[in-house]
Amino acid sequence: MGKAIDQIRDLGAPPSMQGVRPAMPTSLTLVGAAAVLYLARDVFLPIAVALLLTFALAPVVAALRRIGLPRAFAVISTALITFTLIGIFSLIVALQVAELAKNLPAYQSNIVMKVKDLKEAGSESGIIDRIGNVVERINREIDRPTTETPTSVESPKRDPLLVEIYSRDNPIQVLTNIIAPLVGPVAMAGLVVVVVIFMLLEREDLRDRFIRLAGFGDLHRTTEGLQDAGKRVGHYLLMQLIVNTAYGLPVAIGLWFIGIPNAVLWGLLAIVLRFVPYIGPVIAMVLPLFLSVAVDSGWSMLLWTASLFVAMELVINNVVEPMLYGSKTGLSPLAIIVSAIFWAWIWGPVGLILSTPLTACLVVLGKHVPQFEFLQVLFGSDPVLAPHARLYQRLLAGDPDEATDQAEEILEEEYLVDYYGAVAMPALALAEQDRARGVMSDEQRLRVAASGMSLVSNLEDIAIEESKDDENETADTEGEPASQPIPDGEGMTILCVGGRGEIDDVSAAMLAQVLRAEGAAATALSFHQIEPANIRKLQTEAVDAIVVCFLNRDSIKHARFVVRRLKRVNTRARVGIVIWDTSADRAAGQRKADTSAEQVVGADFVASDMTTAAIEALTKRPSVPLAAPSKTKVRRRLVPQQTQ
């Protein structure tokens, strides 16, 4: 069975549609936490960076421990290698930036020439000249004085002289100007190194302390949450680093072949900027494109550079990422964008880079802590509505087209009978529950029924395809046991009728379509056609079975009268009742309840799910005659006649 079908069957009976909302104390806690993170960012930012690096390096330390290395040696060697590589990376970037700054004046002439060419190309139509003349005229009007004082002698205007004041540089001041900007980043880097080493050394002790503070009452849930967070964040960082490296190295090599200066710098920046969701690759592409315009006197280098980045994005997004990402971070695309904005506001550019793993930790928190479940609903990528709830919502909104799209996605892997039984019937059960509770108006009921009928009509082509596929499979697998328990309906004529309302009519139409997919000539009728005034008009001479569908389990008494009417109309046809049961599985005790219901109703068969209903409808058995009225009832009928 597919994932959507298993999800429905694991749910059991249709759940009540209750929302997940944060309590007021929880909301105040989140607002207070955001304020603290913003005001104390100098304290929490190094801790957050160190925590994420600990998540990433913990598997490496564990692997070294498994081969017999002491803990201290494994931690220190891992940290030393990691931060050495980060230092080399930063040094190369700094040297490349310095070289680029030195060479920028040499590219000024090309930029001026291209701007001049563009201006001349635009001036052929006169648009740029007209715009320039208008702007110049407006400036003259603004600068014109309101009152002019006439002067007898006008002194000639002279341009002001530029004066530059040179002062002897103080060596101590120069040294201070160089070192002062570096104190903050160096101090932060040192703190991160120290915190990472101690977190790796005391990882088990920190875990136990966190469990004692946060989840001592539920060790299972807390342990599962910690493992989930470590797995998601560590896997994301490792895979993202591999993907970014697979992106940055070819970019650097390609830019070097094209002739872009400082190709190593752009490759390294591409590796870092791809950690920023969505906008990072754009920033990594814009800078080399601008430099290609400045370096090349023509436009060919710009085209080659753009082609390189487009080709790399296509390869990375469609080949490398699907191959390496065995599992995602569990975040929706919109959540990634919103979290990037939030963490960039809280912690600046570093927060932008850390936004995805930090938000993944919040999703894990919402998954394992009930008070923060709304975080998983807001930021998680898993569907927040079960397939049957989504279907009911679309039917209630009168949107059968989207409901059809959702159904076709599931039917790519499932049969029509499975979809109707596990998704559509629970959705109709929700509608029947709302109708019985009195919260559904007549207009809404008719809208749900009309949308359901449109859905069945839209899926008719799939039923025809399944019918053809079943014929081919029967021909190819002759002599082998059938994969489906539903018998072949070739040559059988069946009527499927709604029991008491329009929603029952939709369930009957779905059953009829399933029977047509099995080769039977099945027709769906409305509940109006089995009312006492209309039942005699039914054409049932060539019908093999009549199936009446009910979504309300309190309709057994009404079903008894319907069976009697139908058996009086056609004594040869088998008459069955389907009282849809949307629970997950039916135990043996429940089957006994069906047998007793069959005795009460007096039908040839009573079913409760789509598969059983199809099997019973297509089973060729003789019809059970209608039971004769008891002697007591006969005497009651005769007594009034004798008294007369």
Describe the SSE topology.
Elements: H1 3-11, H2 24-39, H3 41-66, H4 71-103, H5 108-123, H6 127-143, H7 171-201, H8 203-214, H9 219-258, H10 263-273, H11 279-295, H12 300-324, H13 333-368, H14 373-379, H15 387-396, H16 400-411, H17 416-437, H18 442-458, H19 460-476, E1 493-498, H20 502-517, E2 521-525, E3 545-550, H21 556-569, E4 574-579, H22 588-601, E5 605-607, H23 610-618, H24 631-643
Parallel strand pairs: 1-2, 1-3, 3-4, 4-5
Helix pairs in contact: 1-17, 2-3, 3-4, 3-7, 3-9, 3-13, 4-7, 4-10, 9-10, 9-12, 9-13, 10-11, 11-12, 13-14, 15-16, 15-17, 15-18, 16-18, 17-20, 18-20, 19-20
Beta-strand segment tally: 5
- The helix-strand sequence is HHHHHHHHHHHHHHHHHHHEHEEHEHEHH
Distance between termini?
67 Å
Which structural class do you get from the secondary structure elements? Answer: mainly alpha
Low-confidence sequence ranges: 8-18, 146-153, 474-484, 584-593
Overall mean confidence score, pLDDT = 76
> What assembly state would you assign to the polypeptide chains in this entry?
single chain
Rg of Cα set: 38 Å
* Count of helix runs: 24
